[in-house]
Specification:
homodimer, alpha/beta, Aspartate Aminotransferase, domain 1, Aspartate Aminotransferase, domain 2, 2 domains, 7-stranded mixed sheet, 14 strands, globular, disordered N terminus, acetylation (chains A, B), PyrdxlP-dep_Trfase (chains A, B), Alanine aminotransferase 1 (chains A, B)
């Protein structure tokens, strides 16, 4: 009370008073390494002399930032939707105009500027359902089970938010792979849920082993209530593509142990290795028949950020829910409505991704050529990465079967580990920092994704253009050799 | 568990096992009334006979859904950014091309398809800072204190998330106006914070009274730890524009009582009443000098969804933080990085909104004409709304000084109240449902925003086009008269 303000007082919001869950959040993909990379770029611009001329950001799966060109058809349709005067322009193909008109008809006020319904434009949800049906060999998908989102991250957070409950020993536990994409650990920290780690088997190309799932689950039951199992397939950061038998085993395990399945399938278009094939959890689950097909709860996520299109900045994505309790689904709908709607331009791009030009359409040939060029180059870069790294002593890289990252294991000399500990850094953070300072190559330390104690890795995207990738891989290998000598 | 699955088991995720905080969330703006409106539209399309020919959605502040045309310049620049081939087209003005090129230069890979930094494109944050400086008569704004967001809602949720801590009697309490925009109550429920209601004074045109703030605060201190105060100015759903003296009093109160200020200023362009003027909290706070200017923590929110542009679907917005603790600000930055970045097209539109064409630019005349036409029509509709409602017996409407809603008070006969209770409905929900069924007019019951016990209101936007608005207002007034007769 009183009218005279005291002359000084502490802030309301300090590290001590703020949300402790937020404090616990970590997100390595944009952590200290990336902040330092930004600084270095600025120093280079200011003319500061460095042992390199540019910083190469191989830290994040951002294809267009690495120079990949957008797919023409996607941008044509979006431009038409943004500025419908262009529908009269002779410079746009007829099929792009038809697509744009169809989408605008489905928008409030025939404009991208209106909110959509919270679950996303109905027409586009129908397009997504048709895509899923085609992808899964005719297994039906219901548009009412599809929710468009602000990138896949948003949808993953929404589903996790529904799952979080309890306190102390009844707190929700969520099984996530190690190594993982750190959205999961960050979201679980923020939501105050318990992260339950299961390890992928590096010796078997990052395979997922049900015995390891069982071990993780049993140990977790001592201190929390495990209720969900997250799978990333194709793997991020690990690049493996799961075999169908493995998916079946995971589904049986989830069913027996009563775990909600979350399948992060944003790299479903990114499969490179011969003999590897993407199998959706939805398809496998359905083909396994009852009780799995009729009872196992599943949420599957996809995005416009990855694939061949790489439209990260538009923040488009979706989740399909399967066997979700109807009342819970209403609650999910309500929760989404508070955010009003996902960004409409991202919805429009998603519509193109799931219903691209057909062979009879004027844009088909160009679309197909652009798409294939991107995917073929990614496949070549995946192979090159594995090959160059495996020629380097002290670096071992599993095959990059899919997604867009390598996650090589590096041997670090004991003296380097010791030096890192003196500096209060994870050994692989120390390695990656030195790499950045000396070569301009920005990759993310394995400790940001999780790894077996005593092993060290880094995640590097395969996205740099081919002409830059080979020298990059060689430079990195040479740096590792030099670093090893330095600390031997 | 053994290998043979049990033949049936309960879902993992049910109403009983899901996140209880999510269950408590309510969001009336897209609640049961709106779901029924959707059904009615479908019935009309199927040829079902109704006492009306179209559903009029006056429930949500969505200008373009109500037929408002996008501002040409905004869409030209965005189309150029989406599809840069258009930079060679003679159909776009030079200044739009310059703006688009400037933005593309600031994007990763010169494409909207790359992620931006998590706080938003640096150039656009600088544009926002310049806008704030102009708006506030030269008071400096630091781009590093500006975070672009997925609409204002996203930024509001982020700041609330930082503020939430404690349990039981130390749980964070947040003061919000009643009536409020239900994003606030929904977010507080989701975050498990305590909603502390302070009432706006309907008798004095929804004025905010510090004595009432103090009452609310004192009562709340018994059972929680109030740490933040939310202000919506201009008001939603109430349409008042706060006087400068009132803002000063609120700031003094917040400082003395150690409350973090959250100023929802998304309607800052929407001020209609003569004598009313928008004063930003940032400006008033700064002009009050120390200790307020140097210590009072503030977050101010803005959006591309409202104003004259009404670009809701793009989900653009920003928050400016003032006097935030540096370590907390780092935590905020980290939290945002988990979401990667706000949608880039929304960032682009925001850039246009904060740096529109200058008088010397070729697009200036058309831009200015379109902008003024929208704002002038809104002003006329605000006035008309107040006038028609106040001519109706049993309806009383405060002046719509700003924003885009009226929130009239309606008298409901005791027998109608009783009938509603029998049906398990809030009386104003009963009224609004009947209104929808009989006239096709969709408005939101006051109970969704909060109101004094025993009073009834509804929120109606002033967005329907002028030629529809007058008949709409009259139809609504007549329905109220009929409803009153029916239950007398």
């Amino acid at each position: 009370g009183g009218e005279s303000p005291c002359s000084w007082h502490e802030k309301v919001l300090t590290l001590d008073t703020m949300n402790p869950c937020v404090r616990r959040v970590e997100y390595a993909v944009r952590g200290p390494i990336v902040l330092r990379a930004l600084e270095l770029e600025q120093e280079l611009r200011q003319g500061v002399k460095k042992p390199f001329t540019e910083v190469i950001r191989a830290n994040i799966g951002d294809a267009q930032a690495m120079g990949q060109k957008p797919i023409t058809f996607l941008r044509q349709v979006l431009a038409l939707c943004v500025h419908p005067d262009l529908l009269n322009s002779p410079d746009f193909p007829e099929d792009a105009k038809r697509k744009a008109e169809r989408i605008l008809q489905a928008c409030g006020g025939h404009s991208l500027g209106a909110y959509s319904v919270s679950s996303g434009i109905q027409l586009i949800r129908e397009d997504v359902a048709s895509y899923i049906e085609r992808r899964d060999g005719g297994i039906p998908a219901d548009p009412n089970n599809i929710y468009l989102s602000t990138g896949a991250s948003d949808a993953i957070l929404t589903v996790l938010k529904l799952l979080v409950a309890g306190e102390g020993p009844t707190r929700t536990g969520v099984l996530i792979p190690i190594p993982q994409y750190p959205l999961y650990s960050a979201a679980l920290a923020e939501l105050n849920a318990v992260q339950v780690d299961y390890y992928l088997d590096e010796e078997r190309a990052w395979a997922l082993d049900v015995a390891e799932l069982r071990r993780a689950l049993c140990q977790a039951r001592d201190h929390c209530c495990p209720r969900a199992l997250c799978i990333i397939n194709p793997g991020n950061p690990t690049g493996q593509v799961q075999a169908r038998e493995c998916i079946e085993a995971v589904i049986r395990f989830a069913f027996e142990e009563r775990l909600f399945l979350m399948a992060d399938e944003v790299y479903q278009d990114n499969v490179y290795a011969e003999g590897s094939q993407f199998h959706s959890f939805k398809k496998v689950l359905t083909e396994m028949g009852p009780p799995y097909a009729t009872q196992q709860e599943l949420a599957s996520f996809h995005s416009v950020s990855k694939g061949y299109m790489g439209e990260c900045g538009f923040r488009g994505g979706y989740v399909e829910v399967v066997n979700l309790d109807a009342a819970v689904q209403q609650q999910m709908q309500k929760l989404l409505s508070v955010r009003l709607c996902p960004p409409v331009p991202g919805q429009v791009l998603l519509s193109m991704v799931v219903s691209p030009p057909a062979p009879s359409d004027p844009s088909f040939a160009q679309f197909q050529a652009e798409r294939q060029a991107v995917l073929a180059e990614l496949a070549a870069k995946a192979k090159l990465t594995e090959q160059v790294f495996n020629e380097a002593p002290g670096i071992r890289c599993n095959p990059v079967q899919g997604a867009m990252y390598s996650f090589p294991r590096v041997q670090l000399p004991p003296r380097a580990v010791q030096r890192a500990q003196e500096l209060g850094l994870a050994p692989d953070m120390f390695f990656c920092m030195r790499l950045l300072e000396e070569t301009g190559i920005c990759v993310v330390p394995g400790s940001g994704f999780g790894q077996r104690e005593g092993t060290y890795h880094f995640r590097m995207t395969i996205l740099p253009p081919m002409e830059k990738l080979r020298p990059l891989l060689e430079k990195l290998s040479q740096f590792h050799a030099k670093f090893t000598r330095e600390y031997s």
